[in-house]
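Protein folds are increasingly written down as discrete tokens. With that in mind, we are printing a sequence and the tokens encoding its fold.
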Amino acid sequence: MKILIGALVTGVLLAATPTAARAATSFTVALDGSGNYTTIQAAVAASSSGGVITIKAGTYQGQVQIPASKSGITLQGATGTSGDVIITGNKPQSTAGTAGSATVYNLAPNSTIKGLTMQNTYGAGSQALALYAAGDRQVYRNVQLKGYQDTFLVWGGTGSSQIRAYVYKSYISGVTDFIYGNGAVVIDSTTIESTNINSSNNGYITAAATDDSNPYGFLITRSVLKSSAAAQTVALGRCWHAGNAADAIGQVLVRDSTLGAHIRQAGAWQDMGGFSWRTCRFNEYNNTGSGVTNGTGDRPQMSAATAANYTSQKYLAGADGWNPVQ
């Protein structure tokens, strides 16, 4: 009887072990040593899929890379105030490569990052990413993304492959093509600030390279586009044919948002790399503010009937019906 009981107990323990191993982990990061780790990267390495990493207030130097194997991971600032937790870097693409320049390089699908700041302080002269989103179904809530050129990249690889990202109640700043890529991206209820660098040209907000087989690229909705720059010195975007690919027919819609006077009237959408902006799919719908069109011919307006099919939910649904929209 003792042998049978022992075998039963052993069997239960063996059966429970895989479940325990699969359990999501929770870690705290703190610079002062009061958490489980002093660096975010160490906590990411230790975390399981679905793990939760809470980051105490402070400024954390260097790149954070979240591998694809960490599906469902969450990084969150401990205070809920995005300015309290800053992940910062200053590497340029010119020396580190695109991925190497990214302060946060997130390949994990189904991941969430909230309540913190990601920034690249390199400045002018090179691409220098604050965030490279490279996994499907990523959510960014109450974050700040700060950079100069190419602040925020959403990239799913070449061809028709496309990843999805949802940015909600956040802040994004930069000058040159600072929201770019080929993903399906919804930027919702967010402040987008163009940095003031001179009196005549303060850059381009978007550079979409949406594959022509994908109906949805970038949606900016319920947001505020602002700047201290002079009136009519910022373009809404330009047409990026990544690698000179003829099928990179960017798609951008700015709708239900407030546009400041810094937005250009003529030239709100611009050519790039020898490709006309008219080869891309650029539109506005139902915007307000002093930066809305005054009737120039190069500010395409989407009809209400068409706009009904260009909602946040439709941009992100994909084949699996994903709907993180709030």
The domain at 155-316 is CATH 2.160.20.10 (Pectate Lyase C-like). The two ends are 59 Å apart (CA to CA).
